[in-house]
Design brief:
heterotrimer, B: about 0% strand, C: 11 helices, 2 strands
Chain lengths: ~250, ~300, ~290
């Protein structure tokens, strides 16, 4: 029996190299149920690679990946998803020629394979509602403004009934209102479904606001991990990445 | 909304069958058969476009259906419907293997692999003696009781299959295929096995193409390897481009127009190749959405004008 | 030993023509990202014109070499003009539109094949040999003509390679092939580059046709036959890769040469097709592709 604090996902010295370039090395991290976790670090720190490694889109060169205690190293992305790991993409994480409704439905189809049509439609409606998209369900998603498109991509992932929702820079290009809205929505999703949320982000303020735990990567390795306040006051992190302003 | 479309579609098919049955046998009914088979072939090609691929192996699947039905009739002497179904199933089984192996490639590579595959299969026919080798197979006749009713039967089968393809296109499976065309990474990320979905899509299309092949075997009574080379895929592409690939009725519009015009043009001795070539070039340059696209645009403009 | 050499030489010979073809195809794909099925038509037109003009010029009393020279120039010029027209009025609008450009090119193939059949007739033509005599290489007899034509083909191939690696135009083409948006941001005049690439590819196809005419029979569909092999060479080597096109062409040519001798031509063809499929399955982008 797994306890409530057992991690859903755990990496064991996972790493990835591309020829001579080491993108990620020796990374031990875990994602616990229901937590909102942030993954930060400068460009080239290995955030995207880590993201791809834990979602199964890239196979590790070394190390192992565990979900619920089961070794899932090297599993295909769609299988990882069926275990509850759903991710979005940094650019174009939706189907631009289809309507919002159809987009979100795809997520539901993925989660509820073998179930009745009406169940999937219901799940899609639910996800659309949670993301505040009920007013534009019949719009062609490619025609929507950037902020709404972001919400659609999160809705697709949420409709797939994630236990870990991995968001790849979901806040880029959003204005203040949209940003605050997305953060609210994410908290709501987590409270409603109990899923964990992993956020890879550059927007330091937003990360500090919403994340309960933060992992800092540097040159493909973990530099620090802990609560936002600890990270803000961590000297190594301050010195290298955040700049004195954020530490105050 | 979809139910209404299906019912009106079924009604249209029924009407067409009655109209065909009322025609007197002759060149006219032959033409109807050829058009119907062309429609089905183009529809098969269009179905694979749902996953965003141009399936040049369509001609191979048509050929497999034709030869399958032909062998079942002349060599194994099975009942008619079983032969036709057998042709379709041969195409599906080959499509399954072909798709599983090749759908890992995309775009130009898949296109050219399909082209190569068509040619290989055609070459195989010419080498296998009990398939008739280069001269092909003869004596593929439908049963006696169907003699007068063959055109009606062909129209009915094609009509039913078109409706089935439409229903699948509008189903969740169809939507998944279209999503794969737009962004297969996202579809992967929500737990759908993209590769097997693509393979399934190809198998459905292969079945339709196989039935088209079987029907053409019975209509023409004679088949030969040359009928199923890449030229057939090219004609199917022409029907689709002229008719409009976005609309489920595109194959119908394109096939009707081109087959009719070709039969007129043949009388003028210009050669059907030039004709088809001109048709493709002109539609691609001037009406990229095909005839159905033009009609749809016309409707939309009328609606805007009456709303204004 | 003799047979082996003969087969190798035949392979090189066939390969040299495929090379000119596939270089044109890969160049167009690399720069414009289009699959041009109609590429063979430049070959056919050029070959046809040579086959028609040489006898006619001979009848006008010109000596053989002059007749051939003029015919070649005429054939190549006509093909290049055709290519420019097609670029200007058709292909230019379909860059990076794979399906659209392919469909367009397929239509053009049907159109031209029909037109050629109509104007030139379906009869097989041949051109009288330009240069007589044979040469002995390592003890195998090779007609001087074939040898020279083979050398010409290799010569043009190296010329293309030189252009792509040493000239500004060539480097610009490669930049565009790798990332056309980045290239445009760098100020590379994309439209002009595309135009030049298309022109060069057309030129190569036309040259191939002109030099093939004397050593092979010419029919209205001759371009299509070579085209298929050219495409296969490009697929094997990788769409967009010049070395790949060369490797792929020689590869197929040798299979054809050896397979045609030890088994039979159509089995060799089948083997080639099967091989393409296998290679594509193991390395979806071809042996050296980055398409």
């Amino acid at each position: 029996m797994t306890g409530r604090t057992d991690p859903i996902l755990r990496t064991d010295k996972i790493g990835r190299r591309y020829g001579g370039l080491v993108a990620v090395a020796d990374l031990d991290m875990e994602i616990r149920p229901g937590e909102i976790l942030g993954l930060i670090g400068p460009n080239g720190a290995g955030k995207s690679t880590t993201f791809n490694l834990i979602s199964g889109f890239v196979k590790p060169s070394q190390g192992r990946l565990f979900m619920d205690g089961v070794d899932v190293t090297g599993e295909a992305p769609h299988r990882m998803c069926r275990r509850g790991m759903v991710r979005t993409f940094q650019h174009g994480s939706l189907m631009p020629s289809m309507t919002v409704r159809e987009n979100i439905l795809i997520g539901a189809i993925g989660a509820l394979r073998g179930k009745v049509r009406s169940q999937r439609a219901a799940r899609a409606e639910h996800a659309a509602h949670a993301l505040g998209l009920t007013h534009c369900l019949d719009e062609i998603s490619g025609n929507l403004p950037h902020g709404l498109q972001r919400l659609v991509s999160i809705a697709i992932a949420y409709a797939a009934q994630p236990r870990i929702l991995c968001l790849d820079e979901p806040l880029t290009g959003l204005n203040q209102t949209e940003l605050a809205n997305v953060l609210d929505v994410l908290r709501h999703i987590r409270d409603e479904s109990g899923c964990a949320i992993l956020l890879v982000e550059h927007n330091m303020k937003a990360v500090m606001q919403i994340c309960e735990r933060i992992i800092v990567l540097h040159h493909g390795q973990m530099l620090a991990s802990g609560a936002p306040l600890d990270i803000r006051t961590n000297e190594q992190v301050i010195a290298a990445y955040l700049g004195k302003r954020h530490a105050q | 909304m979809d139910k209404r479309v299906l019912y009106s579609g079924a009604g249209a098919v029924a009407l067409l069958c009655v109209a065909t049955a009322a025609m007197t046998a002759g060149y006219g009914t032959n033409l109807v058969c050829w058009i119907a088979i062309a429609v089905l072939t183009a529809a098969s090609l269009r179905f694979v476009m749902l996953i965003g691929e141009l399936n040049f192996a369509t001609a191979a699947f048509v050929g497999l259906g034709a030869y399958g039905a032909g062998v079942a009739t002349t060599v194994m002497d099975w009942p008619f419907l079983l032969c036709l179904l057998f042709g379709g199933m041969v195409a599906v089984v080959v499509g399954l293997v072909f798709g599983y192996v090749t759908l890992r490639t995309k775009g130009p590579y898949f296109l050219l692999i399909g082209f190569a595959f068509t040619e290989v299969v055609r070459l195989i026919y010419t080498k296998v003696h009990w398939l008739g080798g280069n001269s092909g197979m003869v004596g593929i006749f439908p049963p006696r009781y169907l003699d007068a009713w063959l055109p009606t039967f062909v129209v009915a089968v094609v009509g039913v299959l078109l409706l089935a393809l439409y229903a699948i296109e509008k189903s969740h499976f169809g939507k998944t295929c279209i999503a794969i065309r737009d962004n297969d990474a996202v579809v992967q990320s929500v737990g759908i096995n993209v590769h097997m979905t693509k393979v399934a899509c190809l198998c459905v299309a292969a079945f339709a193409a196989g039935i088209a092949g079987g029907l053409s075997a019975y209509v023409n009574n004679v088949i030969s390897p040359g009928d199923f080379g890449f030229l057939l895929s090219t004609f199917a592409l022409a029907y689709l481009k002229v008719g409009g690939e976005d609309n489920p009725l595109g194959p119908v519009a394109g096939a009707v127009l081109l087959v009719l015009l070709a039969s007129v043009a043949m009388g003028m001795g210009a050669g059907e190749h030039v004709f088809y070539g001109m048709a493709i070039v002109l539609s691609v340059l001037l009406m990229p959405k095909g005839i159905t696209g033009l009609i749809q645009r016309g409707w939309e403009m009328r609606r805007k004008r009456s709303a204004a | 030993m003799q047979t082996l050499l003969q087969l190798i030489l035949t392979g090189l010979q066939i390969g040299s023509v495929y090379m000119l073809f596939s270089l044109g195809l890969t160049l167009i794909f690399g720069v414009m990202k289009i699959v041009n099925f109609a590429h063979g038509q430049f070959f056919t037109l050029s070959a046809m014109l040579v086959a028609v003009l040489v006898p006619w010029l001979l009848m006008q009393g010109l000596p053989l070499s002059a007749a051939f020279g003029l015919a070649v120039l005429g054939g190549i010029a006509a093909s290049v003009v055709l290519g420019m027209l097609l670029y200007q009025f058709a292909f230019r609008f379909f860059q990076r539109d794979l399906a659209g450009s392919f469909i367009l090119s397929v239509g053009l193939v049907l159109l031209f094949e029909g037109a050629f059949l109509h104007y030139f007739g379906g009869a097989v033509r041949s051109v009288p040999p330009i240069i007589d005599g044979t040469v002995s290489i390592f003890g195998t007899a090779v007609t001087l003509q074939r040898l020279i034509l083979c050398l010409v083909a290799f010569g043009f191939t190296f010329a293309l390679y030189w252009v792509l690696t040493r000239t500004r135009l060539g480097k610009a083409m490669r930049a565009v092939a790798i990332d056309h948006e980045a290239a445009m941001l760098q100020g590379i005049p994309y439209k002009r580059i595309a135009f030049h690439a298309f022109a060069m590819a057309t030129f190569l196809g036309a040259v191939a046709g002109a030099i093939m005419a004397p050593i092979s029979t010419v029919t209205p569909t001759v371009g299509a036959d070579y085209l298929v092999k050219g495409f296969i060479a490009v697929i094997i080597g990788g769409l967009g890769s010049v070395p790949g096109a060369i490797v792929g062409s020689l590869f197929i040519a040798f299979i054809e040469s050896f397979g045609g001798y030890y088994v039979d031509p159509s089995s060799a063809n089948m083997a080639i097709f099967v091989l393409v499929m296998l290679i594509l399955l193991l390395r979806p982008k071809g042996l050296m592709g980055n398409g």
